[in-house]
Amino acid sequence: MYFSRTTLLYMLVFTLLLHKVVGDDPLYHFCTSSENYAANGLFDTNLKHLMDFLFISVPPFGFGFWSVGIGETRVNGLALCRGDVSSTDCKSCVVEANSKIRQRCPYKKGAIIWYDHCLLKYSDEEFFGKIDNKNKFYMRNVRSVYDRVSFNQKTKKLLTRLANEANYSPLLYATGELEVDDSRTLYGLVQCTRDLPFFDCKKCLDTAISELPRCCDGSQGGRVIGGSCNFRYELYPFVNV
């Protein structure tokens, strides 16, 4: 059976296990280009130089982007680590992402891969400062809440508040919590890649939050994860403090 790329991007839903074992497996990936580059050619060399730069520049700040080469051999890339991740874990994630993306998208001129702790993306097309609405997927908890309507409203309220906070943060990142009732607290996180202007970060997050009904209607936890921004919410703490 054939599914179009658009269908996969916007309708793909993953199930989160309640007790997820932490490992090195990526959340998901896309090979974003159908064009191949030659092994040991200029593009391959430039891609290696790009990754070397990201290994060095990203961990201290949690984000980095760069371009290497000119013309058809030019490669653009970025890496983003989650705002609460240590420099050591950030570097480990970027190194693992580079290794895995080469395995899953061998010799492709464009690819993107996500982990819990980081995002890695490269392409022969320049994408810096542009909202990526093409590469997106959903994750959700298999358990649902009984008070679906009220819970959905509070989830949107928390994420909207965090989107506003991230819009004014130099890291384009925010976390927070909201009491759902006497016995439950909702925890949330939003983040954008830092090549985006502030107003585009807010725009990206607003679009992601608008997809809550399609992604996570009544689910105890969920995520919309894209190439430029993402959010996550859960009924348990998941951010390092």
TrEMBL record:
Listed A to Z, the keywords are: Repeat, Secreted, Signal
- Where in or outside the cell is it found? Secreted
The residue range of the signal peptide is 1-23
The answer to whether keyword Phosphoprotein applies is no
- Identify the residues that the record assigns to the Gnk2-homologous domain, covering every copy: 25-127, 133-238
- Organism domain of life: Eukaryota
Coiled-coil spans in chain: none
Q: Which InterPro entries match?
A: CRR_secretory_protein, GNK2, GNK2_sf
UniProt keyword Signal present: yes
**Which GO cellular component terms, listed alphabetically, does the Swiss-Prot or TrEMBL entry include?**
extracellular region
Query: Of which family is this protein a member?
Result: Belongs to the cysteine-rich repeat secretory protein family.
**What PANTHER family would the database entry show?**
CYSTEINE-RICH REPEAT SECRETORY PROTEIN 38, CYSTEINE-RICH REPEAT SECRETORY PROTEIN 38-RELATED
The protein's name in its UniProt record: Gnk2-homologous domain-containing protein
Origin species = Tetracentron sinense
